[in-house]
Amino acid sequence: MGAVSENQVKRFTLSDIPYQRDIAASLGRALAEERLAHAYLFAGPRGVGKEAVAYALGAAALCGEEPGAGCGTCNTCRRVFADLHPDFRRYEAEGMHFDIDRVREILAEAGRPPSESPRKVLLVVEPEKMTYRSDAPANAFLKTLEEPPGRTTFVLVSHDARQLLPTILSRCVTVHFPRLTAAEIEEALVRDFGLGPQEAAEAAARADGTLAGAAAAAGGEDTAALQNALAILEEVAAGGVAEALAAAQGARGREDALALVDALAEVNHELAALRAGAAETLRYPAWEERSRALARGGRLASPERVWEGLARAALALRGNCNVALTLEELFLGMIP
Ligand SMILES: [Zn+2]
């Protein structure tokens, strides 16, 4: 979603990446010594450079100018960075759900030999969404991880690895991405987000160690969608379905409504994390207090039931439904 998405962040090579330098260096060494694993899991909170490192690794693996490092400027590197290289592919869930068809696409791609490079790198973002409605997509994916085709490296990027099947976890080399330092965030805000030094320092101080948090603190557009979703859930929890519908007025079209469902799912994740006593996995710690107030007191249905409602709504919105009626049904279903 929107402005804080990691894939909109500037691309780097393994040697010039300004954060997660230890991880980048160790991946560079593995590549140089030809002991790259078949599957990596990059695990850590949203907005700590996991995808940036994955792209840098992709460039390093495919670049012919500086093999093993990535020059960052040749035709190969530029196509990796722009998602245009046939041997570097990025896959993500559609909304909240990584469906079996998408997984089959990945498997078909993994089975084909590299087109023009010595190897192939397949980036799979949020594989935890493969178990959203059933385990079938995850199990299909697992088969390929068990017998990875030669010359293919998988990089799985997960913001919440606890949701992955243990069988998937066990097949990957897990790389834990720590939160960024305020200095790293400040530097990124000035350089990549065009903030002034003063503004960047203030946002970095409130950024909870992630670029997502930094963008939120700096008032990114993405935050607006999530703030709106939070406000809608607050209305529903207060018994105001009509008010919630009024707040959702911006989502008249199908696409807008799907984006809203997505944002509601993000907030629901926070509620589920708090219910499970796992505050350390909050994606938006800046809103912990509001999320806690929502998670308390049984004024909303359980996160599991809200998930089900969101999944149903997403499915309906992809079909031929009435948008307003679908949202109304969704909100009513959130009342315990
Ligand atoms: Zn290059």
Reported CATH architecture of the largest domain: 3-Layer(aba) Sandwich
Q: What's the order of the H and E elements?
A: HEHHEHEHEHEHHHHHHHHH
* Total count of helical runs of at least 4 residues: 15
Strand sequence of the main sheet, in spatial order?
Answer: 2-3-4-1-5
Kindly identify the CATH topology of the largest domain.
Rossmann fold
Task: Explain the overall architecture.
- Residues 1-9 have low confidence and may be disordered.
- This protein has 15 helices and 5 strands.
- It is α/β, with parallel strands linked by helices and 336 residues long.
- It has a 5-stranded parallel β-sheet with strand order 2-3-4-1-5, with helices on both faces.
- The longest helix has 22 residues, at 254-275.
- It has 3 domains: 6-176, P-loop containing nucleotide triphosphate hydrolases (Rossmann fold); 181-214; 220-333, Up-down Bundle (Zinc Finger, Delta Prime, domain 3), CATH 1.20.272.
- It has helices at residues 21-32, 50-62, 75-81, 100-111, 136-146, 166-169, 182-192, 197-205, 211-217, 221-237, 241-247, 254-275, 288-295, 303-318, 323-333; strands at 39-43, 88-92, 120-125, 152-158, 173-176.
- It is globular, with a radius of gyration of 20 Å.
- α11 (241-247) packs across α15 and α14 (303-318) packs antiparallel against α15 (323-333).
- Bound molecules: zinc ion.
- Residues 63, 65-66, 70-71, 74, 76-77 line the site of zinc ion (ZN).
